[in-house]
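Quick one - inputs below.
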Amino acid sequence: MIAETRVILRRGEDDLPLCREAAQKAAAAAGFEGQVLGDIVCAVFEACVNAVTHGRSGQAATLRIRVYEDRLEAVVKDSGRGLDTPPGGPLPPPTVPHGRGIPLMRAFMDEVKLDDSNGLQVTLVKYRT
Amino acid sequence: MDEETTLDVKNVDNEVTITATGALDLHNSKAFHDALLEAAQSADGVVVDFRSVVYIDTAVLAHLCAASNKMLARDKRIKLLLRDHTHPLRTIQITGFAAVLDAVVDDPGTDQ
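Output:
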């Protein structure tokens, strides 16, 4: 591992800008740029939005970003109820207001792993090309 | 560091233009939501200018969806201005929103 960044979202939604900033800095420092950098920032942000929206009140969600030789890996964890619906669906049509978070993460990242055995842990991976 | 987020709403002869800058998301998009939904209810035309927006999230997409549905029910469509090679354009393209609103893409060198 080359570098690690951690954010604890103690203030919930109010700490979301910290997540974007952390993702931007970590991805840029790792050499990602342009559209790929934007993809990483957006995917990490969406995972953090889900965590503060669906996490348990009073228990801070966390973001950890690790940079390796071959990839960037972001892990977002919350203490909520886990997934309400199966996460494998496609992007909903534009007339449906919700349900885009996980499909967008899948569109932006190379791997998205979900573990709802204890709250929800989302692992996002982008490989270097 | 997040670029400063600003919002400007102009109404000229019931044609509403909502211009945002910076990163627009769940945390800071309530004013955008309120202005957009109000305009979608009754304006003759609605233009959303995202050419200076660097990121949008699914909360903003939900706002666009809700407003677009209101406009479509009145046989109207939102006009969404985007800058080429920006992430909001990429997000709009991936999510298929061009099917329900009129996305207009500027080159980065085009004057507003």
